[in-house]
Every structure is written in structure tokens, then in C-alpha cells.
TrEMBL record, chain A:
One of its GO terms (biological process) is phosphate ion transmembrane transport. Gene3D superfamilies: MetI-like (1.10.3720.10). InterPro entries: MetI-like, MetI-like_sf, Phosphate_PstA. It is found in: Cell inner membrane; Cell membrane. GO terms for molecular function: phosphate transmembrane transporter activity. The lineage of its organism: Bacteria, Pseudomonadati, Pseudomonadota, Gammaproteobacteria, Cellvibrionales. It is a multi-pass membrane protein. Residues 318-550 form the ABC transmembrane type-1 domain. This is Phosphate transport system permease protein PstA. Belongs to the binding-protein-dependent transport system permease family. CysTW subfamily. It comes from Parahaliea mediterranea.
Automatic annotation (TrEMBL), chain B:
Its main location: membrane. Keywords: Membrane, Transmembrane, Transmembrane helix, Transport. This is ABC transporter permease subunit. The keyword Ribosomal protein does not apply. The keyword Transmembrane applies. GO terms for biological process: transmembrane transport. Residues 445-733 form the ABC transmembrane type-1 domain. It holds the Pfam family BPD_transp_1. It is a multi-pass membrane protein. GO terms for cellular component: plasma membrane.
Amino acid sequence: MAIADIHERGGRGLLPWIKSGEPMIWLNAAAVSLSVVAVLGLLFLLAVRGFSHFWPRDVMLVNATYQGQERVLLGEVVEQVQVSGEQLREAGFELAGAGPFYGRSLIKQGNRDFFPSDFVWVLDEQLGERRYPAHVMVVERLEWGNFYGTLISVSRDGELLADASGEPAALWRAFQDLIDETLAVREQIGDIERGEIGANNYQMERLRLRERSLELEGALDTAAQAELAAERAALDVRYAALQEALYALYDSVDGFTYGARLADGREVELPVSKVVRAFRPNAMDTADKAWMYLKKLWEFLSAEPREANTEGGVFPAMFGTVLMVILMSIMVTPFGVVAAVYLREYARQGFVTRTIRVAVNNLAGVPSIVYGVFGLGFFVYFVGGEIDQLLFREALPSPTFGTPGLMWASLTLALLTLPVVIVATEEGLARIPKSIREGSLALGATRAETLWRVVLPMASPAMMTGLILAVARAAGEVAPLMLVGVVKLAPTLPLDGNYPYLHLDQKFMHLGFHIYDVGFQSPNVEAARPLVYATALLLVILIALLNFTAVHLRNRLRERYKSLEN
Amino acid sequence: MSKLSEYAPAHRARLRHTKDRLATAGITAGGAGVLLAILLIFFYLLYEVVPLFSGAGIEAGERTPWNGPVPAYLAVEEQGEVGFAVAPDGAARFFDIASGAVIETLDLAGDRAAVTVVAAEAPQSRLLALGHADGGVSLARHDYKLSYPGGEREITPELSRPYADQALSLGRGAVTALAVSDTEDALVVVGEVAGEGLRGTRFRRQESFLTGETTLEEEALVLPTLAGDTAALFIGSGQRWLYRIDSAGDFTVVDLQRSGAAGALAIAATGKLFEGGGGLSTSAMLLGGISLLAASDRGELVQYFMVRDEQSGHRFHRVRDFDTRGVVVARILPEHRRKGFLALGRDGELQIYHTTAHRRLYSREVGAPGREGAAAIAPRGDALIYIGGDGQLAHWAVDNEHPDVSWSALWDEVWYESYDEPAHIWQSSASNNDFEPKYSFAPLAFGTLKAAFYTMLIAAPLAICGAIYTAYFMAPALRRKIKPMIELMEALPTVILGFLAGLWLAPFIEDKLTGVFALLVFMPLGILSFAFAFSRLPVMLRRRVPEGWDAAILLPVVVLIGYLSFAANDPLELALFGGDMRLWITRELGISFDQRNSLVVGIAMGMAVIPTIFSIAEDAIFSVPRHLSDGSLALGATPWQTLVGVVLPTASPGIFSGLMIGLGRAVGETMIVLMATGNTPIMDANIFEGMRTLSANIAVEVPEAEVDSTHYRVLFLAAFVLLLFTFVFNTIAELVRQRLRVKYGSL
């Protein structure tokens, strides 16, 4: 009924309007609107802040007078706020204006290696004319954060390639060429360090473990020792060769430098080998910026983090999250389905099954941290400790499975989501008409055959629903993972080219934990904040994708058995 | 027709049958196994928690003969293998505890005058002081070196004589009681000298800047003259308080910092130790040198320490007394690493106590009469040795893993050392070794409930009102869109909500505090004015809005009011609070303000809980049979009257169950509180301060807790409490829901 009609019966006016209860209905409607605004606003906030992180911002050059000195500031304006005059005077500011409120800007001036801090708050009234000179460049580096300044020279092994006296474009091109060359070499270095030397070290470690296990068995005779020594010598030789190649590569780019002028006029000489990319945002048009945006976005998705996780990409975290969720799904589905089938199809229905059902239902509401504590105590320390004693004695006292890792994280989350899968599957089983089962049995099929050929296929959409809910919950869960296997920085991916390829005992990175760690444990929160927004957005998108995939799968299954259900 | 067996040969039928049986067995075993595994959580947590509450146990070892006098000082080294005993005459020996065999004998008196008294510095200290008949004092320290020749552990005892080149003398008469305290700053020796009373000396350590050498600067302490004999003498930690007890049970506490001002000024407190009268049986300082333990010869056992006092500065307060069940304690052995102690009864009873937990863990006759023997506890607290007057060396293995937790330590106010009054405090670790762990769940449980309360304050009205409207008034087409959208929030990871709350919302609220409160006022007013204005519109215009789309037309209104409220923040703040509401709150109202406070947590966690409550409540209201409300409407009730009178009462159990489940979720949520509060364990309901919840506490501390330590198990107990908490809430909700289902069935 239209709310607007209701008051008509009592006549017009404020009092009858209130009496009709219509205001209450409006307030209830407002609660819905408010909730919707909150949800959409939140997603909007994440999207805006997350996506805008990669856009190259213009760099401002401005004269500022603060702390009694005139300085030249060069940097990006990151944030602008209004602060009340009283608050500022309280904090000891001397204000020129008399207004109640003052604009204040957070300027990212970078150059952590030359300035005391890379972010400065400045009152707008302290700033002079803002200029955006085209020659200002931003250099993203492996260390010390961004560099802001003007390029004045480029040299190779002490020999000047180009400087400001020549054509600016030539100088810039020479710089870019050097960067490209360095990047190519760095890629090779990365391949050797992570790929070949990593594999070599891995084999070395396996060799050590084999020796130790032979020693434990008492089978370490001279023949075995000789064999091990030979293998070790071969590995050593390879290692030495790789190391040599590595040094040669490092040497080849060591002499590349660029000269730059800081905002305060200082001139510095910096190594090109630490440069990730250099660009001049003020000279870029929108198309250039869009291209840069895409490149940075790709770097975020595909690269590894650098600078204590505050720069670079989140690929390992993304990979860890997905791998953990997949492992969790593989574990939870069969167990959940078996338990549901048992409860619904095989167990005698009575008080006990009813109680179990309530208990299982309730476990879905038990706080995740409780599962984390259980996982740490039972899986990691108890089961893991026993496994180490039985199977990995050669590695002791350093634990293999007796320490948090991928396997225990997936298992803990599988346990956490088990009730969800059980409940959903059970509901699906309950919906299948009895007549269908009876039909199958009447045709001579055994119970197992009925279950396998008729009941389970029909219940598969419900199982998928359970799995969807499980995945949605598991992908965003962080608290238990902090106890059973997630770390802020894992040196290698848990899936690689070294036998046995999937390293269940390794610790891994996770997007959710990444958000917590970078946003709250990082020493430079200001620098890390944009990245956290981007990571949060990525996590939301990832969860949405996982969900949509599962929903799509479920719908296809549902289509297939639709005719049977009616 | 061919025979059936052609299609189903006998062996195939058998195979199928076997398969079927195997499947049944497999599913039954698998299903029951999985269900058991789930229940395992409950039992495993319990298994980890139970040792906290079990008492102590001891196991007697062999007795070996001891040829020598009963020692005046007895100690055991770290590994529990070598013992050190000093006879009253200063003859000392290191001996093997298992066999009683002498390893090395030494004469501590040496060429000095006869030894008259032997005193240890503190329970865990290996420094002891000897008083001589000529008023002199000498010091000795026993140390142990570990080496592993040939893979075997070997312990080499060593005795050193610190300050041997320093002539330490308190007077000319025999020293009858002695206390010593040696720190990096100063060495203090106080003793009772026969015929001269209390005498004390402080040696300040001076380090030369040029040479780096340390020299001792002697300074005589001027101590008051006290009546009575000196039965026991102790110097407290920090070398400030000197405790002197006479055999009648009277105590005197002397302030050594004021010892220059001679006489009565330096006396900080005097009085009787025991309420029931009686003289002193024995006394000892607890680990840390703050608490004094004393037992009377009538079975009283008390703990005292200095407490700061508003009026008189300090007083010596009787903090707690222990029920000995009539046993007269003759010897107190404080533990070296914990705030517990062993007590030997006069006639051979052994009792084990813990002070903070106020707990007696063990009490039994073991045949070790405290009045005639000497005893020592191993540094790890796992062994006790006793040398009796009968010439026997006895030892016991002590199993006392978790003495420091009890029901009262967890939930009641406890008077911790150095505190002015009993308090609820959670402080599980500190940097120093003699720290008193404070395991009070009260502030954590309070924080949990506080977070849940503010969450429900925000989530419950929004979720229930929203559910009412969505289920009862909203157009079906809109409902199909709105419901999944709100439920979508449930899939939003809480770590994202927490991060937004901590890094975006908290600074935002701090900045726009006035706007937040303006929103609370403007939002309902604005909505109602809009609604009233809408009802004044011509009918033709109103008809344009389809039935049940009011929420949709309210969307821009809500956004606008929100925008206006925050836009009005600055002028309002200037007009009402002089430009800074935060400052105003702290100054004018005297309420402290944290940036990450309960309001932030309430809003963020509200967002996480709203979909849970909304979804269940909406289902409950929506499934109220239509004919009930139709009947009511047909009888002339307005829709609102129908809702309040018919629909809500029918659906109320479902709404209640939604609230319960929402509450369960708010209680257990970890990441949001972890990120959106300061995580300080305080007990204050102030909305502008943070809290520490049970779950966040677990997340913060478990990774650092040593496996199977008391701290670790206490955290498991916290998890168990959380589990029980949510289990109870969820069970209530589930039962209510089941009853509701039955009720609808009958309608």
C-alpha cells in the first residue's frame, strides 16, 4: 500500500499524520536507505581510493615559508583538509590570517635519503605560487622511496653521456635507455638469483637432509659419504659459476649513474641500478598517463613487494590467497559432503542427530579466532610435531610441519567452513523428493548406487552453494591465519619448480594479512596507505570473482537438474 | 525372454552388494569421523585448559645419608644436580644431590672470626652474607659452569668472595641477624650487632670516567634504636625499605632513604604482623623483594607489602592471608621464578601456595619437619631438597606447572604488588624476570561486551527497522534487489572494514565529531520533515511513486542530509565548541578522547553485523503468514497497527534469534577491534575510549606465548570462554528459531 494514502483516512494535519504511524514507516524505510548508502558508499570509497593510486599525479613546485624559513617544496599534493584556527594555535602555529578555518595540504616530497621526512603538512597560507614545470621528474626506486627533482646529467662508467647543456630530449632519452638496459640486466639477475641459485640451494638443503637421515639410520658409510660429497661438489661448482655470472651482471650496470637537482638546489649523483622507472608527469598528456596507469596497475598485480611491502606489487599475496582458498575447497568439500550425507541419509534420525545438527549449526557462529587457536595448538604443535618426529627427523630441531604453514592454514579454514558446507548440502539433500530415491531403489539400484547416480548429482547445486559460502568466508578471513601460517614476507612462492612443487609446509602471504600488516604495522603508514586501499580493493574483487565463478557453476548445475526437481 | 541372470550375473550382484556395504561403512565412518573432528575443537580446548586448574603434585625420591650438621644455608643449582650447603660455623660444601656425595668442601670462615649468622640476599640470588663474631661481615657467591666434554653435561661449581678486599664491619660485637642487598648502584648491609643494636652500611659504587674502574664509597646508615630482639631482617627491592621483625611478631619498616635523619623519622611503619597474636615462626621475602611473607606460631600465614597512602605516605599493608588449615609453618621457601612459595610445617607437612592466585595447590604430610631441618627449592621450581636432623638428605620432584591461575585471579579484583588498591588488570608479560603476571579476564570480558554493546546500539535499530520495511512494506521488485545488496556486506572481509575504520573512519570522526552528532539529530528530523512535506504533495504527484518504493526516493535524501551534516561540521563546531569539539570534550567534560575509540568500533562492527541480523529478521517477518496481516487490515487497522499488533509479535522470536546471532558475531569479531581500537585493556565504558577484547587479545598474544606455558593456556582459556559465549547465544537463537518454525507450521 502506498504510505502516502494512509493518513487520508484520519484527515489532514500533523497530528493525524503522526497517529497514522506513517512517520514510523518512513523511518524504517530510512534504515534501509541508510544501510544501502553505507554499503555503496563503502565500495565507492574503496574503488575511488584504490583505483586512483596508480594515476600519475602532477608534481608541484612551490615556495613555502614555514618554521621561519623560506623553502622550495617539490612534490605531490596527497591530501587537503580544513583545520580550525584554534586547533592550530593550540599546536603552536603562528597564523597570518584571522579566519576560523585554514586549508592544510599534505605534500609528498619523497627523497627520503636527503630530507628528514618524505611527507610534510603545510598550511595553504604558507604556500606561494604553485607551478608545474614540465622538466620535473619522478623516479621510482628500489630504495628510499620516490625521488623528485630535475635531471641534469647521465653518465656511464664515469663517462658523461648527456647533460643539461645539450638538448633536453636527448638527455631524457639517454636516461631512459640506461634504465631499460638496467632493467633487462636486473631481470637476468632475478632469474639467476631466484630461479637457478634458488634451485641449487634447495638441492643443497635436500642433500644435507639426506645425509642427516642416513646418519640417523646409521647407514652413513664411506660409500654413501663419497656419493654425497661428489654431489655436493657438483652443486658447489655450479653455484660458483652462477655466482660469477651474477657478479658480472652486477658489474655491468654498476657504473650507470644520473645526476639530479633537488628542490633545494643540491645536486646529487645516483645509481641507475636502483631505478624502477622514471617519468615526468607534468609533461605527460592524458593518454601517456593512462598508459603509465596501466603499467603501474600491471606492476601491482604481477610484481613482488618492495620497501617493506609499501611499494611494488602484491602478486605473492594474491597467489597465496588463491592457492590457500583452492586447497581449502579441496579439503572441505569431500568431508562436508560425506558428513552431510551421513547425517541425512545414513544416520538414524532421532534426538542425537538433532543435537548434532544444532551443534554443527552453532559451530558456524563460533568466532574464527577460536578456530585459529585450535589450529595452532592441535594441528601445528600437536599433529605437526608428531609428523616431524615420524617423518622429518633429519630436519629437527628446525620444524618442518611443526610450525605454521600453508597446509595447516588451509586445514584450519576447512574446519572453519565445514559447518557451512554441511548445512547447505543437508538442505539440498532434504529438498530431493523421497519418490525419486524410491524410484531408483525400486528399479533395483542399491543404496550406494542411488546415492551416487541420483541423489548426489541432484544435490550438487546445494553443495556448490555451500562451497560458495565457504569460499566467501575463507577468502576474507584473516584472524585465524595470523596464527597458523601467514607471514608478512615469504621469500618464495609455495608453488615452484622444485620437487615436490607444492610446498605445504611453507609459510605464505595473504592479501588480508597484507592489508593489516602494511596498514598497521608498517613504519611509514603515510606512504603505505594508498597501496592498502588498492590491496583492499583487489581483495574485494578477488572475492567477488571467486563468488561469481562458483555462482555461475551452480547455475549451470541447477539448469541440468531443474526438470527433476519439479 | 532371456533370463535375468544374463543381465545381472550372480557375481556382479555380489559385487554390487559388497560395494553398497562398503559405501555404507565408508560414509558412516567418514561422516561420524568428520562430526567427531568438529566436536574435537571443544574437547581439545578443554584439554589445554584443564592443567591450569589442577593442583600440584610431588613425588618422593630416595633418601641418602647426610654426614654433617643441618646447614644454615642450602641451595640447588639450575639443573637440580648439585647442591650447596653452609653449616652454621661457616663450613661449606658442594654436593651431588642424588648421592649426597661431597664434591668440594670449603671453609667460609677462613682466618676470620667465627661465623655467627648466615643470610641469603634473596630467593633467586646466589649471594650470601656471613656475620662474624667480631662484627665483621663477609660475602660469598656460588656459581656453576656448564660444559659438555664428550657430549656429557658437566657442572663445575665455583665459589667466589666478592668485596674480599673491602673491610666490611658493622660493629664490634657478634652479628646476630643480617640482611644484604647488592645492585649495580650500591651494596647495602644491615645487621643486628650484639650490644649495639641495628647497624648498617651503604657502599655506593662510583665509576671513574677516566679509568673505568669502580670504587666503593662507604656511608654509614643511621638507624633508629628499636626495642625487642631482631628475629628477621630484610632489605626490599630498590634498597629503600628495611623490614625488621622481632620474635613477638612486631614489625618495623625503616626508610633507608631517610636514614640520615636519625631516629624515629626514618621509621615508616610499625605494628603487629598477626591478628591472632602469637609470635613469629618464620618469615621470608617473596621473589622481587616487595612482599614479605610471615607465619605465626599459631598457624597464621600472611603476606604484607608497602602500599602508597594518600595521608601518611606509606603503610605496611596486610594484603592477604593464607588458610594453612591449622598447620604452623616453620619454613617458607619462595620460588625463584614465580610469585609462589613452599611452606614446611613444623611437624613435616608440605604446602604449596601461590600469592597472586591466592591458592593453596598442595598440602600433605611428607615427613620433613620444618622446625629442625633445612630445605631448598630448585630454581626451576621442580624439585625440593631437605636435610633433616636425623642425618638424611631427602629430595622430591615437584610437579607444579601452573600455580598462577585461579578463578579469583581471573575474575576478581586482585591486589597486585606495587599497586595502591586491588584492581582488575591484564598484563601478561614484562621485560623483567621477577614480574608478577596479571591474568585478569575482567577487563578483556568488559572490553568484549563494551564493543558488542556499541555495535548492537548501532546495528540493531538499523537492521531491524530495515528488515521490517523490507519484509513488510517494500515492493517485491525492489526487495529482490535490496536484500542481496545488504547481504553482500556479509561477504565483505572484516579486515577491510577494520582497516577502513582504523585508517579512514577514525581520523574522519575525530575531524568531524560535531558532524557525527549533528547527523544523529538531523537524520531523523530531516527524514520526518521530508515525509511530512511529501504527504502534503498533490495526490497526482504522489501517485507517481510506485507502492513500496519509498526507500528508493529516500536514498538521495539520506545522502543529502549526510552531506549537509558534515558540511555543517565546521560552523557548528565553531559556534558550539569554540572550534574544536575534541578539545572541548577533554577540557569541559573531562572525558579522555582516543582517536580509535568505541564509536569507531561500533560503526565498523555494526556494518559487519547488520547483514546478519537483517537477513534473519527479514526472513522471520516475511514468513509471517499473509492471512494474519490481511485479516487485521480487513478489520480496519492501519498497516502500522497491523505491523505492531500482529506481524511483529508473531515474528519476534525470529528477530530475537537474529539479534542473538548478531551479538555472537560481535563478541567474536577479531580484526575490526584489533585495527580500530588502541587495544588497551581498560575498564571504562567511555564511548571515546578504546578497549581490548578477548579475541583481539588472543590474536595479539598467542604467537608470542611459549607453548604449554601458563600464558599460553590462559589464552586457550580465553578462546574457550569465547566458544562457550557464542555457543550459548547461538543455541538460544537456534532453539527459538525451531519453536518459531513449529508455530508457523500450525498457522
